Amino acid sequence: MRPADNTENLIKKLRYKAGAEAHDRILDNVMQALDESEKQKVGATAPDIWRTIMKSPITKIAAAVVVIAGVLIVMHFVGLSTATVTFADVIKPILNAQTAELDIIIGEEGEGPVIHDMVMGSRIRRTLSNVEGVVAIIDLQEGRILQLTHEKKEAAYIDLKDWSSIPNYMERLRNVIDGLQAHPEFKVEELGEQEISGQKLIGFRAMHPKAEITIWADPETALPVRIESTGGQIFSMEVPPEYKQQETELDLHGATEGDFIEGLRIMAEVFGDGQFPDSVALEDYLKQAPAIVKKCEELGLSEQEQTELGLKLQNYLLFIRFFKGEGQWHYAGNGVKLGDADTAVFWYRPEGSETYRVIYADLRVEDVSPENLPE
Amino acid sequence: MLEDRLLLWKFKCGNRDAFRLIYKKYAGDLLTLAANLLNDKADAEDVVQDVFISFVQSVEKFRLTGSLKGYLATCVANRSRDHIRRNKRRQTAAVNEPEQTTSDAKTPVQLVICSEELHKLSYAMTELPYEQREAIVLRLHGDLRFRQIARLQDVSVKTAQSRYRYGLDKLRSILNGEVRK
After folding, report:
1. Residues of chain A with pLDDT under 50
2. Is A8 touching B (CB cutoff 8 A)?
């Protein structure tokens, strides 16, 4: 009598091997079916997504991070943001009446990434500490971003659709500073006289629980002094010579619920090993940005794949920022596994709707009355 | 598992090489599965081809919640059943010659014995009730758990386990000459 496992082992040896010709034939037939299926889809949907993507090189993963930061964090200053970006230590020397440099620290100081802004009039020159080699020059008046990727000598103009012009960002910043000064805990510390770049200057540090400003001024006139030379060139919206130029448009209000769901799926499936992200807040996404870029490199994603991914994640972030809802949403995906049909991960109330849209972990969506929302 | 997710994602992004890798990775096992269920190589190739065509046509909506191999194996099992229902005659069709693997066979004598055993076994498999054969093949060639087999056969887990066990017992009996056709 043969032991049971012997029979099982013998059955496992009952393998039918198709020859190379059979495999080639099957694969050819499958690919042909795929071609036909795609032709039908292209006919049914316009515009062609691939053509759109090819025109959107700025949406590559690293670039998308900076663009999104460029667009969304500007909003924080103009009072439109619902994001909770923390200023642990912010506004640094005001160079003169028209320019400023400031660091926006995401999360805890020393841990989170830093957005470094140089501001002149309505223009911002923005870099991110965790995304090297990419600079965004943002024209808030025109609603345009020039993004430069130095290593590849690539330049891309991004036109912001539906942008409300901001003629002078410096004025906005000054309003922020005025607001800080009006705070009861606002203090000014005299730093005394110091010689900086051969010039004797007097310093003041203005402190606030959430911000600190250091101003160096001429002791004779008391006018703010330009400490660093920040010529207009670094704010230029002209593409430098030898840079390959591309143009695209970013529709701030074009992201849909479907885009957001697709972003959730990617974050869970590709970057979360089947688990939803801890948070969908912009600042948390920015913290993850280097890990996302690294993962893309590890996966050996092509330029085209990175472009597609960047586009999808960009829309995912834009949806949260600009969705036409009541300004209220709730995310509960922390620790939830993709596919769990019983667990809601996100809900929001669309504008004018009496019910909420609830997205579950299997990515289906249901309309739910307020009294039946998940607890 | 993670690799499958990434291949799937790349394929969803339009990367056809990713699909070719998925095909290369699982086509062999799926053909074995289908051939053991259908006892016909040509039918097995048709079924596997249909499964992959259906997969690529619906991949945009497809969400992987378990293993990709398990999913594809389940599709092959379902299509094989449909195929058998449509072609009742397949139940008694002649068995194709299996191309057995013989890595364990160390001498020519063992090789011959092994080949004979496989030939007998292949024939014996056709003697099993379809549900028992399906349970055995899905378990041993599809790597499906009894829970998955039970769901597919729409029976309890215990019933699926019993079908597997009874099937193996019957095969042993046939191979030992205890049961004659």
Report:
1. 1-3, 42-97, 109, 226-232
2. yes
Q: Which two tokens stand for residue B163?
A: 């079908």
Contacts of A36 by beta carbon, 8 Å cutoff, 6+ apart = none
Architecture of the domain defined by B97-181:
Orthogonal Bundle (1.10)
CATH number of the B1-96 domain: 1.10.1740.10
Q: Which residues from chain A sit within 8 angstroms of residue B36, using beta carbons?
A: 14, 16
Contact flag A30-B53 (C-beta cutoff 8 Å)? yes
Give the separation between CA A267 and CA A211, rounded to whole angstroms: 33
Q: What is the pLDDT of residue B136?
A: 94
Interface of A with B in 268-327 (CB under 8 A): 269-270, 273-274, 299, 301-302, 304-305, 308-309
Q: Which of A5, A11, A38, A267 to mutate to test the interface with B (most CBs of B within 10 A)?
A: A11
Taking contacts as CB-CB distances below 8 angstroms, the residues of chain B near A302 are 15
Range of the domain at A294: 256-372
ipTM of the complex: 0.80
pLDDT in the model for residue A280? 85
User: Per-residue pLDDT tens for A267-303?
Assistant: 888 888 889 998 887 777 777 777 777 777 777 777 6
Q: A with B: how many residue pairs have Cβ under 8 Å apart? A: 124
Average pLDDT over residues B65-77: 88
